[in-house]
From TrEMBL:
GO terms for molecular function: D-cysteine desulfhydrase activity. The lineage of its organism: Eukaryota, Viridiplantae, Streptophyta, Embryophyta, Tracheophyta. The keyword Secreted does not apply. Keywords: Pyridoxal phosphate. SUPFAM superfamilies: Tryptophan synthase beta subunit-like PLP-dependent enzymes. The keyword Nucleotidyltransferase does not apply. This is Tryptophan synthase beta chain-like PALP domain-containing protein. It comes from Deinandra increscens subsp. villosa. Belongs to the ACC deaminase/D-cysteine desulfhydrase family. Its cofactor is pyridoxal 5'-phosphate. Signal peptide: none annotated.
């Protein structure tokens, strides 16, 4: 029998017995049979159009969480800071003398949490912001969460090289390069387009920490083939993350087709791992589920208070990870994602495929889809475009609160969070925005949109 060697095996390798029975059923059937699912995964969601398949299981939500979270992590602990942003609406004089409204903000960096979240009443609107942008100088926000479980998986399987891809200013590519370099792994980054004359922002970080190849847009369009042919050109064996994950969960059965020879697993051979664009892989999800578990502790956000969690969506992986965490823990939270790079249909497909992949890889009962509320941005546009006035909006937020947001991603979350915070005052759920990082994105934008700065 072949064995997967692990540098640092997880603390315990408990395998749980469970029985699953997959059925395609209607929401009505499911609701009327809710009681019969007692002792199984607790599901606490409103039923919507995305709701498709449920499989019952004898696994409790604790067992499911254990299956997903019992692993080695990159972050020593999942802790993060939470600030409270107060939002005030001011009447302003606009062009041609008409009156308009403008928000101003202030930041309370030490808000009372736990029980006090429920008690807190004020005349002002406010939202909480999870400051994941402060996790690391270069690997922060959702990048840190996505790589939290991913990098140890690569290490455990003796990966030597990693290949990934992204835009020229990809925060993901830079985060992979930095994380790999910190662990003695080699990162190969395939960046879309031509090399800029002057490197800056994430592009500069990618060049400093990784091995960058610029790829013409026409070739980049077929990313899957690009990743795999580049990985093959490095030499040694090539493995996808999903295969690694499946091998970790199935290491008894050893059915994985990538474990061809013992030689491939020897510690001195090259092994290249492919990470999809934006780490849109199932192994990116546990880090976000871990974050939800952290936030749901009684002394932080608690488990009983209805909350609206706001996040910006590129591939949508971060939002889906949060949604799964909320589902598994049975929290009365709703994850709302601002769509930036795809259509509702595209995001729903991504949600479905990530959930299926996670359940397959972790040997879990299928969960249903429809766990994320996908919404349009206030001012929709082609992905990556910046509209007039948005740099000034980021500047205002930075100067009033000390929080840096960027117009491509985090400003979209901020706008929605401040809009919803006004509804919260009228009795809506409390609003919590996840800062997804991307701080250095501004450097690339200053280069691209010179006239705006
Ligand atoms: C700052 C920032 N926010 C959000 C996202 C989108 O995250 P996701 O692809 O998981 O939706 C990205 C992309 O990686 C990003 O760089």
């Amino acid at each position: 029998m072949k064995i997967i060697f692990q540098r640092n095996p997880p603390i315990s390798s408990v395998r749980h017995e469970f029985h699953s029975a997959c059925t395609s059923i209607t929401p009505q059937f499911w609701l009327s049979n809710l009681n019969s699912f007692h002792n199984s995964l607790s599901i606490n969601l409103k039923v919507n159009a995305g709701f498709q398949v449920i499989c019952s299981s004898n696994l409790s939500s604790e067992e499911i969480m254990l299956k997903i979270l019992n692993r080695r992590w990159t972050l020593m602990n999942p802790d993060t800071k939470i600030h409270q942003i107060k939002v005030s609406s001011l009447q302003t004089q606009q062009n041609f003398g008409s009156l308009g409204k403008k928000n101003t903000y202030s930041n309370n960096p030490h808000p009372s949490l736990g029980e006090n979240i429920r008690k807190w009443h004020d005349d002002e609107s406010s939202f909480y912001i999870v400051r994941d942008d402060l996790l690391h100088p270069l690997v922060n926000g959702n990048k840190a969460r996505k790589l939290d479980a991913l990098i140890p998986l690569v290490e455990d399987h003796l990966g030597t090289d990693v290949v990934t891809c992204g835009g020229c200013q990809s925060a993901h590519a830079a985060a992979v390069a930095v994380s790999c370099a910190e662990r003695g792994l080699k990162a190969h980054l395939l960046l879309r387009g031509e090399q800029p004359q002057i490197l800056t922002g994430y592009n500069l970080i990618s060049m400093l920490y990784g091995s960058v190849t610029y790829v013409p847009r026409s070739i980049y369009a077929n990313r899957e083939e690009l990743l795999s042919s580049h990985a093959n050109s490095i030499g040694g064996s090539v493995v996808s993350l999903d295969d690694l994950l499946k091998a970790s969960s199935n290491h008894n059965s050893m059915k994985s087709n990538f474990i061809d020879t013992e030689k491939e697993w020897s510690s001195n051979s090259k092994k290249t791992i492919i990470i999809n664009e934006g780490a849109g892989d199932a192994i990116a999800l546990p880090g976000l589920i871990r974050l939800v578990q952290y936030l749901s502790q009684d002394h932080i956000l608690g488990k009983d208070q209805p909350l609206k969690i706001i996040v910006d969506a590129g591939t949508g992986t971060t939002a889906v990870g949060l949604g799964i965490g909320v589902l598994c823990l049975g929290l009365p939270w709703e994850v709302t994602a601002v769509m930036l790079a795809d259509t509702t249909e595209g995001y729903k497909k991504k949600e479905q495929s990530l959930i299926s992949e996670l359940c397959r890889c972790f040997d879990l009962p299928m969960m249903h889809t429809g766990i994320v509320n996908w919404v349009e941005r206030q001012h929709p546009r082609k992905f990556g475009n910046v509209l007039k006035g948005e740099i000034e909006a980021c500047q205002q937020i930075a100067q009033e609160t000390g929080v840096l947001v960027d117009p491509i991603y985090t400003l979209a979350g901020w706008e929605l969070a401040s809009q919803l915070s006004q509804e919260e005052r009228k009795g809506g759920a409390k609003v919590v925005m996840l800062h997804t990082g991307g701080t250095l994105g501004m450097f690339g934008l200053a280069q691209r949109y010179k006239s705006y700065f």
